[in-house]
Structure formats: C-alpha cells, structure tokens
Amino acid sequence: MFQARAIGLSALLFTGPAAAESVSIELTPPGALKLQLLARDPNAAASLGGALVRSLGCTPAGVAVSAIGTASAYRAQCGGVFHRNGQVLDGQIKFGGFRQALIKSSSDVIDVDIGIPDAPYWRAAFPRGWDRVYRNGVIHRTATIEPRELPAHPIKVAVGYRAAELGMILAPAPMMVLLALSLIVFLHRRVAGKAASVDPRALWFAYVRSVAWGLTALFFLWAAIWASISGTFAGDAEVWALFSIWNGRSAPAGRIMGLFLYLLPSFFGALLCWLWVPKAFEGLRETRYGPIDGMRLFLFPALALILPACWTISAFGALAGFETRHAAMRLVTAMAAGLLCRFAIRRGEARRARVLPAGELSDRLQVLARQCGVKLGEVHVVPVGAAPLAEPLEIEENRVAISGYALDVLTPAEIEAEAARRWSLPFNSMPDLRRVLILFVSLIAGMAVSLALTFLLGIVLFFLHLHATTILARISLALAIGWALVIGGLINRWLTQRSIRRATALVGDPEALAGASRKLAVIFNWSAPPTIRSIATAPAVSCSPAALVFSSSWRSLVRNVQAEGTLLTLSIPPILIALATRAGIIPPTTRWYAYLAGMCLALMLHSTVSKVADCWAYRHLRKKLAAKMQIAGSENTVFVGLSPEPRALVYDGAFDWDVGFLTLSAGRLDYNGEQARFTLRRDQVTDIRIAPGAPHWSDPHWVYLSWRDGESGGEGTIPLILPRVESPWRLTKQVRGLHSRLSAWQRGDGQGAKAPARPALGLPSFPPVTAAPAPKQLPAMVATIALAGIFTSLLARFPVASEATVYFALVWTANALWDLAGHRLTPPPETAAT
Fold first, then answer.
1. Is the full-model pTM beyond 0.85?
2. What DSSP assignment string belongs to 201-242?
3. Which phi and psi angles does 819 have, rounded to 5°?
4. Residue 662 and residue 635: Cα distance in Å, rounded?
5. How high is the pLDDT of residue 111?
6. E-strand spans in 749-793?
7. Are strands 379-382 and 399-403 parallel, antiparallel or unpaired?
C-alpha cells in the first residue's frame, strides 16, 4: 500500500499550435474540483473551459479568466462530480464533450497527465498504453496523444479508505497494547514464581530490564508490520499524515497522532508497571515512585532504545530512496533521541545517589579511566529502589553509577574489569552513536539477505506462473528487520569478544572479568548470584560463561534461525495455495483439498527445516568444542547433551544445560563437558533406561543414567540428551543405539577401548544452576494463531474477514497442536525397534 502526501486529481492536456495549452483538474478531500485551463487568448480559454465543465458535468463557481505571461488562464471550482461515501471518494471523469471541443479547435497533439492520490483503496480504469509515474504521493497516468485518442467512455475513479483498509492501519495499535499487557502479566507471574528463592533486589533489576527490552521487542514487531502494510520503512508517519489531510486536518497533526500510536504500547506498559508493583518488591520501601520517577524508571530505558531505533529505520528508508541528506539528518536525530532519554534517567539518579567514598574501588576506577582515555567524574552509588536505575552497574562514557546491590555482589576487581570491558568498546564516549551505527549497518545487511531470499522465492513463483511481486516486496521489508536483529546481535557479540580481549590486557585479571560477566548474567536470568562473603565457598566451574562455546548467544542464534524458518515454512505454502485459488488456477470446488495439501506441506517443511537447522548447528558446535577441548573423534566417543536434574527443565532457553563428549572404555565412563566433568566405573552405574524427555516432538526421548557410589553414599540420575548430529531424521534410531551401547558396556559384553592413563575426573557434581519448568505454550500459541492468521492475510492482500484468513489461522493451529502433542504420538525407541 502506498500513501499520498496530498489529496488531488490533476489532468494536464497540452496541444500544439491550437487554442488549448493545458488544463488541470484537482480533486479536494470534500469532493470539489478545482479547474485551471491555459490558452493563447481569453476567448479560447473561456470557450474550452466551458466545454470542460460541461463535459465533466459539474456546476462551476468562482469562474475567473486572468493573464499568465502570454497565455490566458481559466479558473473555476465545481462540485457534483465526485461524491464522498464515508472515507471513499468515487466518481467519473468524462472527456467526451471536451474531446469534441478540442477536435473542433484543430488541436493536433495533447500531452495528458492525470494524477490520482495513492490511497490504500485505489481504482481507476485508464487506457493500458498510458505511462504510470509516482510523484509526491500522487500516481500520474501520462500520455501524448491526439484529441481523437482521448477516452470516449467515462473513466471511473474510486480512492480512499474502506473499512478493510481502515482496519488494516488501525489493527496494530490494539494488538500491540494487548501484547504489552501480556508482557507485564507474564513478568509479574515470573516474579511471583521466583520470589521465594531469589533475592528481591536481583529480581528488581531483572524485572526492570525485561520491561525495557520487552517493549523494545514490541516496537520492532510493530515496525515490521508497518513496513509490510505501508510498503516503506517507517511509513507510519506518512500514513497518518495523509489520513489527517484526507479528513481536512494538517499533516503535522497526523504525524503526531502516528507517533502517539507508535509509543502507545510503551506508555501503557510503563504506566501499568508504575500502578501495579509486584508484591515481591513490597519489602523495598523506596520502590513507590511518583509519576515522573515511575516514567523515568519504566519508560525512559525503553524509549532510549526505541526512539533511536525508530529514527535509524527511518534513515535507512531515506537511504533506500537515495535521500542521503535526509538519512544523515535522521541518524543524527536518532543519536540525539538516545542522549535525551539517558539524560532524563541520569537526572533522576543524581538527586538520590551518593558519591562513592575514597577507597580501593574509587582508586581502581580512576586509574583505569586514565588508561582508557576517559574523563571520569564522580562515581555514584544508588540504593536499590531509591532512583530509576535500570541496571545494577551502569557504565557509560564518563559516568559510573553503581547500585548498592552490585557493591554487595561484585568485588572491586570485578567492577573494575566490567568497566574496562565497556570502556574498551568502540565509540566509548558516544555509546548511542555506536548502537545507531550497529543497527544501521545491520539493516543494510538484513535487507541484502532478505532480497536474496525473496529473489529465490520469486523464481519459484515465476515457474509456478504466480505473480506476487507486491507480496514479495512486502515480505522482504518485514524479513529485513528480522534479519537486521540477528545480524546486529552477531556484530554486538563480536564487539563484546573484542572488548573482552582488550579489557583483559588492561586489568590483567581474566578471572575477575569472567566473574563479573557471570554474576551479571545470573541477575538478568532471574537468579541471585552469590554474595562476596560466599564466593570463597562457591563451587568452581570449569569454564566461564564468557568463554563458553555452548553459550547464551549461540542458543539465541539457533532459536532465531528456527523462528525464521517457522515463519517462512508456515506462510509461503498457504499463501501460494490461496493466491492460486484466487487466480482461478485451483477450481473452487477442489479448493479445500488444496488447502489441506498446503497445510500438510507447510507442516512437513516446518519439521524438515527445524531438524536440518538443529543438525547443522550441533555439528558446528561439536567441531568447535572438540577443537577447544582437544578431543579426537572415535567410535567410543559420543557427543551428548546433559541436564543436572532427572527431569525436563529449561536452562537459558534450552533443555541442555551442558554439552560434551561421553567416552566408554574398559570398566570406565568419562564425560568431558564445558561446565561439568565426571568419571563413573561400571559397578557405580545402577540403571540405564529410555524415558520421556523434552515435551516437544523434536526431542521426545532421553537416555537416563542412574549411578550410586557405595563409599561416599552419593547417587543420582543424569539425563543424556542426544543431539541431531549424525542425521536430521534418525534420532530415534540413534537414541536406541546409545542405549544399546551403554547397556552392553554395563553388562561387560565388550570391553571397549583401553582405559585412559589420565586420572579419574571425580563423581558427578553440578554447581547450583537456574532452571525452570517448560513454559506453558497454550496462551502464547493462541495469540500467535490470531496474529499470524491476520498478518498473513494482510500481507497477501486478502480482506481480514475472508476465507483466506480462516485458512491461515487453521495452518498455525495445526502447527500449535503438533507442538503441544506431537511428542505424545512419537513411539518410544523400543517400540520403533520391533
């Protein structure tokens, strides 16, 4: 859908040596016509102007003939041609009588230029040979013809906003408000579930950060939807500006309305957080903020991310239109917006913070600042809940704000190491510029990837004789934002690793840097890290999270790739079937059989793409982990995942807590992983069985290994999770094979390889980890079904209240049912073996 900046209909007719020079007709939003005709003399202008009025069939008013240079201009206003029905203007342009007048005046050639505003609903029956030019929000149909070639029949024109188009541009607002409400409710339930076992201060920072990032995620979702609806990046401002003009108001008023709707979910979420404080935080007496402080705490951290992202997307849209000057101005505005939001946050902190007294931490930070070339001022210590501090440790440019909770949890060396890491990032004096540039570069790369994918899809559609150029263009815009987020995450990860290396060289203490990263990550994962007093007794971990191969960023990348695959596989086949039905390729009597075939194809593609992505990801993970741990592959070594609890729990978004290599030798079983290592003798293994695993069709069965040590009395059950490494489709057979090999080793049927000379790794012992039960997927799936059905229908240019919308919703419903109950239909490996 394209939008017009001005509402108008103009026709310019040029003749040769005849009387008429040009004529224009402008259609105003109320339906009145403004006419202007230029001729060589006043008599010819009046004569042809009257002929045009009679041909159009309107009643003239305000008729005037004046001189313009050497020509004469006929001007008039008339109505009665176009009628406004609600938000739609329709009527007919009749050139029959005017055509005869031009022929009688001996006009040889006429340059015709008819412009119609590019509204969501646009219908006009022009001759096919006329050119089409888009200029300043108006679609111009131009041609150079003889007067006899003017259309003798009326040209029917209808333009405006029907109920379907109004619903399309209004639907995202209540949808996003509902998602914002769902986000806050989800976070409150999570706070309530963690309140009994986690320090309220740690929950407070995790809650505030989740609100900011959750509202930012809603913004990117809205931006992707608007890009698909408007056909341009950040096209919402023009949509509402044109709608305001269409209803007789100004364009700035419409842009303000559009900005208000864009920020409505953020304002609503922040207001809800301020009014509805979780009970777990009632012990923090100072969390009762006034309206201004509440907005600073819950709204401005989100706006500091949303506003720069909004202007950056707008700058990318301007760059795509080769408007480099506008793109540069919008990038500067994006950086300024982030600075203003963070300035508002700092003013709230400065009034309640105290200055860090002289001591070890202050001395460390001052020395480090001089090494990094940073002019550090006062270091502020902010009590938890006393000021709008969104993170336990905020280090930006020449400003350091530390919460009292961070002083209790982090050592001075860890705070110094974290400051060194953040000051080692590029543009450390202008972090907002760094974020803007990362997003801008990511949008360019994301658009390139999206265009490549849609180009390949377009080739497939071409061979299927389906023309969906507009749909592919809109898909590419939405996918560009999604890919930009993935690529931006990769760039940020690379910059983080680079800053870690530079920070390690600055402070010379990698353990302090790893400890700070680990403790901050634990806080934002809704857990409470050990305090300084208990650090000495905390169990050691073999590798720090900053150095893990099986890291949070790796898991997020795999989830994002699978989400993209799910979106494409569940959207493309149904859209193709619906388009083929609308085009008449599929007969109406057999359409439901085609719908069912498209649904089955979509589900099969979803399953295939998900399994292939899993196999590809875990193969690369195994290769990198083997190189890191210097483990050579052999027939007695198996790559497995591991969970410390004998039931399906979620660890940082995955059921695998650790991955490593399981090695079988004569009388000995060794596991070497990133976070755990242990050795078990044959007599210590009491049971090996196959039992249900993850509540999902992709990984329904695990191998459970039970052990008991008679000397120490220790015992436990360890789930062994087999990734899809050897083949994407033979997981059941591989699980059965692993169970058979472990059972044979336990019985001593095959002695296997010789026991290694290295010492035993000790009994299984796992550090305290954060885990959660598998989330309830039904509420999220219900929302996904509704949103995906409506959005897919809008993307394919179907009305919301149509059979296609029902079909798209049914496809997503079938996928949701398969996700919820698919693992129950998968037979166990023992049954599959018979």
1. no
2. HHHHHHHHHHHHHHHHHHHHHHHHHHHHHHSSTTTHHHHHHH
3. -65, -35
4. 11
5. 74
6. 772-773
7. parallel
